[in-house]
Amino acid sequence: MTLSNGLPQKEFNDLLGNVREFRDEIVTPNVIDWERTRTFPSDAISSASNLGLLGMEIPPEMGGLGLSFSQKLKVLDTFSEVSMPYAFSLVNSHNVAARLARHGSANQRERYLSDLISGKKLGSTALTEPSAGSDFSAISAHATPVDGGWNLTGEKAWITNAAASNVIVAYIQTEQGSRAKGIASFLLDGTSEEFERVAPYDLTGSHAIGTGGFRLNNYFAPHSDLLAPPGEGFAAALATINEARTYVATMCCAMVEASLREAVQYAGDRETFGRPIIEHQGLSWQLAKVANQLEAARALTEKAILVIENGDTNSAILPAAHAKKFATELAEPALAACAQAMGANGLREERLIGHRLTAARVANYVDGSTEIMTDRIAKSLSATYSPSS
After folding, report:
1. For the segment 221-280, what is each residue's pLDDT rounded down to a tens digit?
2. Topology of domain 125-235, per CATH?
3. Which of 108, 235, 259, 370 has CB atoms 3.0–4.6 Å from 338's, for a disulfide?
4. What pTM did the predictor assign?
5. What percentage of the chain reaches a pLDDT higher than 90?
6. CATH for 9-121, among 3.40.50.1370, 3.40.50.150, 3.40.47.10, 1.10.540.10?
7. Cα 143 to Cα 113, 155, 224, 290, 296, distances in angstroms
């Protein structure tokens, strides 16, 4: 499976209209309650399958919609205007299905793909551990060869959808001390007795991500559940990381744009000293700064999207890093400026700016922290900006 050219524009516009209706009916009315009750909305995520959204990029002949990468990001933008955590959970389950469609065996696709696309099962990708985050090659969860397969032991942490996922792509070390060279990936069954789910983490403003972990207690994985063999797992994990960094960037842009629209409308309606507050230079210039930075973030994100859709993974590394670093660093101060423009009303729960602020903090960590993005850019300086380049 390769990246799709996507739906015809009219057909995609119709889909996007349906996505907005679904969002406004299922997501928007429940965002605040999900946080108040610390609920992972697995049913709301599964119900997105009614629009085919759990198979967005998967070809129609495999049961998906066949969206292009840029079309998928527009869907995620639509949800992120209201709840980035919901969008992030949705796309992470979708990504497991997409990985199976791209790289799974016929047996693996037959067993799991239909249930993932239909929402009967949710997916997770498990890389990080309690002591291994940005340094992914330092994972210690271990796989030992046994008759008929592998014995898996260890713990995974900070896993999106871990609250309820039952199809998990887990990255496991097969040769201690070998770092990236020994990493393989396996398909795990979250209903197995040897799979011990850890209680979901209480992440302020982001319970809809369902972040948690699990322990593998002598978990038996048959050879048929090996997805990427030893030595190929690390590369497989990195193969789609540029896509993930780019969609996190566009989610941040969507949150900022939604808040900016609210702030501009409020500032146009609210009057002080006989005129709308948007006519006061101190306020209008603050919002103008947000708009200017938003346009820059969108431009960086569009550049990354273009490179990714051209299919050049290596060339996408730097554009994706620039987009994620800029958009995630922009989001928090931009959202705060929008809230400030609305005065105390900007803090009202129903305006969702506070919800977006906590989600923006999460965005700084997922799929490579801001520091990792900065380091990636720094290491490219000589090659990119030397006099001979």
Report:
1. 999 999 999 989 888 888 889 999 999 999 999 999 999 999 999 999 998 898 998 999
2. Butyryl-CoA Dehydrogenase, subunit A; domain 2 (2.40.110)
3. 259
4. 0.94
5. 85
6. 1.10.540.10
7. 25, 12, 15, 49, 45
